[in-house]
Every structure is written in structure tokens, then in C-alpha cells.
């Protein structure tokens, strides 16, 4: 997508042909700063610290990190050790393991001197695949928004509520939950987005930055406002991204998603989840008991980061020093609360039967 008129992806190969460049998402939306990552340890730190974040994007960046590890040492031992190290950086988004496994499979049968080159080529293919996948998610999601628009009086916007950031900055490009919104806006449809701030890391500020940069009307709201907006008929549809969808349609996503799904169910509002194939984990059935939920530092809860009154960006405490804090970073929405899934292959129900029909090769 564009930043000040210049098209970007959220990760790209540096001119040196071996490092990658990303935007430091801990500095967004206050500053647009590029970071150069030149080895697997720098990649691991960027993922752990959420300098780079978003399920599909951490997969793509992790893939390049493994390629960098192979440049240093192309042995299978180092391949497996580095893949394990990178995979441990964040446990919930299955895209990271999916991408690392894809790199391992792509290089394993090459002679050592060819492995790094093959890994870089596969990482580039993962990025290109993600861009095209998300574009298609946008097309299929656009049809859904058109169906809603057709039922509304002319000039009334389709009102979408979204949680966290599943936009272009969370993927290689286009985003997942935001992809249909961008395509609807670009097609001239009246759309308005309720943007959940998404405590504690406030990824909603990234969504607001993305939508504002693209000229999409939106309103920034607290996480706790969503239920009220739905009760008062101010939401037509909820569309969120996801970090892992199980074979029976359970959805792991940013903490607070489950509460939005409950409110949507209680108010008969469609709750849709946008996902690329790399987010589907057919090896897991029961999301609540089988998906690992990342526990992040309590400091992310007791302090919040933003632009300081006297300028600059910094953190301020929002809880007493004496108070312990807990920080589960994701939750699981059971399939029974999900109206449907928007994928690159079309829309389907949140069920094993529907997912198996859409992805027979994964069964
Ligand atoms: C298309 S991004 C999917 C998913 O990833 C985000 O998590 P995080 O910001 O912690 O990396 C969020 O849960 C998004 O919905």
C-alpha cells in the first residue's frame, strides 16, 4: 500500500541482496522508520519485540531470517536449530511455523552451497504468495460488503467494526480483514470503520493510521465500546483477522476478539474472519485446548506508549507500581460464534466440512 504516495510492501529485500527492510511497528503511527535486519538474531528480536508483527508478516520475515542463518552456516543442523529458535519467538500465529517449514522443505534436498540461495528464493515466493492471497481475500470480502450495501438506503455507509490490526502492515501487502474494506472504498462504496484501540499494544492505532492514509472514513473507539455500538444498531458487520484457525473453525486472534464475537452473536450481527491459507492449521481441532496463547510482559499492560505532551514518543504508567498484571495476548473464538471465513479461495462456514471442501489438499 502507499505511504505518502509511495507504494510499499511491509518487508522487502535490501539492496545488499541478503538483509531485509521492515517498518518498525513499535514506532508507528508516530514515526515511519525503516529497520534493516541482517541476521537471524535480529529477525528473532524484531518478532519478539513486535517491531514486526501480524501473523502473515512474521511468517514472511521469519522465512528470511532462516535464509540469513543458512548464509552463515548451510548445515542441516544449523537449519533445524535456527528454525526452532525462530519458531519460539511467538507461539500463537501458525504462519511462522508454516513459513519456516516451507523453507526447510525447499532447501533440505539441495547441496549445502545452494541452500541459502534456495531459501531466499522461497522466502520471496512466500511474500509474493501472501500479496496475491490477500488481494483475493479482498475480492471475496468485497462481495460480502456489496450484499450488505444492497440492503441499505442509498448514501448510508456500510459500518464495519474491526479489532486489532489485520491491515497491509500486518501482512506483506493489502492485509486480510482490511483488504475487503480497501477494495470497497476504492470501488466507491460508502464504508465506515469502527476501529478498536486494542489494548494493551494498541494495534488499533495502526489500523487508524492505515485507513486514514488511504482516506477510509473511520472512528477510533475503546475496546469496551463495541458491544454498545452493536446494541444500538451502529454496526452492520464485524470483520477481524486471525493468527490461527483450526480444522473445525475455531479462531485464535488478538485478545478481546472473543468478547466482540459474543456481542455480535447477542445482537445478530454477522461476525466474519479473514484468513489466508497460511493461517489454517488442520493439525489442531479444539482451539481452546490446543492453541498456545502467548503470555506477554505485564509491562505492556501497566504502561502504554504514545506521543508525549511535550513531543516525542514514550511510555507512561497506567497502573500502580504495586499492582501485578497479566497479559494474555490472544483468545480463541469458538466456531459456533463465527458466521463465516473469508479466504483467498472464497467464503465458507467455520466448520471442518466447509474447510475440508475448500482446502482438500490439507485434509
Ligand atoms: C493479519 S494479522 C493477524 C493477527 O495478528 C495480530 O497479532 P499481533 O499484532 O500480536 O502480531 C492480530 O492478532 C491480527 O488479527
Automatic annotation (TrEMBL):
<comment type="pathway">
    <text>Amino-acid biosynthesis; L-methionine biosynthesis via salvage pathway; L-methionine from S-methyl-5-thio-alpha-D-ribose 1-phosphate: step 1/6.</text>
</comment>
<keyword id="KW-0413">Isomerase</keyword>
<dbReference type="InterPro" id="IPR027363">
    <property type="entry name" value="M1Pi_N"/>
</dbReference>
<protein>
    <recommendedName>
        <fullName>Methylthioribose-1-phosphate isomerase</fullName>
        <ecNumber>5.3.1.23</ecNumber>
    </recommendedName>
</protein>
<dbReference type="InterPro" id="IPR000649">
    <property type="entry name" value="IF-2B-related"/>
</dbReference>
<dbReference type="InterPro" id="IPR005251">
    <property type="entry name" value="IF-M1Pi"/>
</dbReference>
<feature type="binding site">
    <location>
        <position position="90"/>
    </location>
    <ligand>
        <name>substrate</name>
    </ligand>
</feature>
<keyword id="KW-0028">Amino-acid biosynthesis</keyword>
<dbReference type="InterPro" id="IPR037171">
    <property type="entry name" value="NagB/RpiA_transferase-like"/>
</dbReference>
<dbReference type="Pfam" id="PF01008">
    <property type="entry name" value="IF-2B"/>
</dbReference>
<comment type="similarity">
    <text>Belongs to the EIF-2B alpha/beta/delta subunits family. MtnA subfamily.</text>
</comment>
<dbReference type="GO" id="GO:0046523">
    <property type="term" value="F:S-methyl-5-thioribose-1-phosphate isomerase activity"/>
</dbReference>
<feature type="binding site">
    <location>
        <begin position="53"/>
        <end position="55"/>
    </location>
    <ligand>
        <name>substrate</name>
    </ligand>
</feature>
<dbReference type="InterPro" id="IPR042529">
    <property type="entry name" value="IF_2B-like_C"/>
</dbReference>
<dbReference type="GO" id="GO:0019509">
    <property type="term" value="P:L-methionine salvage from methylthioadenosine"/>
</dbReference>
<keyword id="KW-0486">Methionine biosynthesis</keyword>
<feature type="binding site">
    <location>
        <position position="203"/>
    </location>
    <ligand>
        <name>substrate</name>
    </ligand>
</feature>
<feature type="site" description="Transition state stabilizer">
    <location>
        <position position="164"/>
    </location>
</feature>
<feature type="active site" description="Proton donor">
    <location>
        <position position="243"/>
    </location>
</feature>
<comment type="function">
    <text>Catalyzes the interconversion of methylthioribose-1-phosphate (MTR-1-P) into methylthioribulose-1-phosphate (MTRu-1-P). Also catalyzes the interconversion of 5-deoxyribose 1-phosphate and 5-deoxyribulose 1-phosphate. Part of a bifunctional DHAP-shunt salvage pathway for SAM by-products.</text>
</comment>
<dbReference type="InterPro" id="IPR011559">
    <property type="entry name" value="Initiation_fac_2B_a/b/d"/>
</dbReference>
<feature type="binding site">
    <location>
        <begin position="253"/>
        <end position="254"/>
    </location>
    <ligand>
        <name>substrate</name>
    </ligand>
</feature>
Amino acid at each position: 500500500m502507499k505511504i505518502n504516495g509511495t507504494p510499499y510492501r511491509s518487508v522487502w529485500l535490501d539492496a545488499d541482496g541478503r538483509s531485509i527492510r521492515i517498518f518498525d511497528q513499535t514506532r508507528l503511527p508516530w514515526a515511519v522508520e525503516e529497520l534493516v535486519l541482517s541476521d537471524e538474531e535480529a529477525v528473532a528480536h524484531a518478532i519478539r519485540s513486535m517491531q514486526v508483527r501480524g501473523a502473515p508478516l512474521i511468517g514472511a520475515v521469519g522465512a528470511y531470517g532462516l535464509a540469513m542463518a543458512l548464509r552463515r552456516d548451510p548445515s542441516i543442523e544449523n537449519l533445524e536449530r535456527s528454525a526452532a529458535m525462530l519458531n519460539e519467538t511467538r507461539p500463537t500465529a501458525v504462519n511462522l511455523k508454516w513459513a519456516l517449514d516451507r523453507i526447510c522443505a525447499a532447501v533440505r534436498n539441495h547441496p549445502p552451497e545452494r541452500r541459502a540461495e534456495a531459501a531466499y528464493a522461497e522466502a520471496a515466493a512466500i511474500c509474493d504468495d501472501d500479496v496475491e492471497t490477500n488481494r483475493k481475500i479482498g475480492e471475496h470480502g468485497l462481495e460480502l460488503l456489496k450484499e450488505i450495501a444492497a440492503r441499505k438506503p442509498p448514501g448510508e455507509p456500510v459500518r464495519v467494526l474491526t479489532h486489532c490490526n489485520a491491515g497491509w502492515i500486518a501482512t506483506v501487502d493489502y492485509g486480510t480483514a482490511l483488504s475487503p474494506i480497501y477494495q470497497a472504498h476504492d470501488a466507491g462504496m460508502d464504508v465506515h470503520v469502527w476501529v478498536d484501540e486494542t489494548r494493551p499494544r494498541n494495534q488499533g492505532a495502526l489500523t487508524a493510521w492505515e485507513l486514514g492514509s488511504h482516506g477510509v472514513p473511520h472512528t477510533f473507539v475503546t475496546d469496551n465500546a463495541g458491544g454498545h455500538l452493536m446494541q444500538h444498531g451502529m454496526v452492520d458487520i464485524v470483520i477481524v483477522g486471525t493468527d490461527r484457525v483450526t480444522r473445525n473453525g475455531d479462531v485464535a486472534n488478538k485478545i478481546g476478539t472473543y468478547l466482540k464475537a459474543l456481542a455480535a452473536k447477542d445482537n445478530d450481527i454477522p461476525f466474519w474472519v479473514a484468513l489466508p491459507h497460511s493461517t489454517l492449521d488442520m493439525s489442531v481441532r479444539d482451539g481452546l485446548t490446543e492453541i498456545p496463547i502467548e503470555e506477554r510482559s505485564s509491562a505492556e499492560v501497566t504502561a502504554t506508549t504514545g506521543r508525549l505532551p511535550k513531543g516525542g514518543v514514550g511510555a507512561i504508567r497506567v497502573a500502580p507500581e504495586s499492582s501485578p498484571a497479566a497479559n494474555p495476548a490472544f483468545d480463541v473464538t469458538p466456531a459456533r460464534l463465527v458466521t463465516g471465513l473469508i479466504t483467498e479461495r472464497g467464503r465458507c462456514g467455520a466448520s471442518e466440512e466447509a474447510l475440508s471442501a475448500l482446502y482438500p489438499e490439507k485434509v
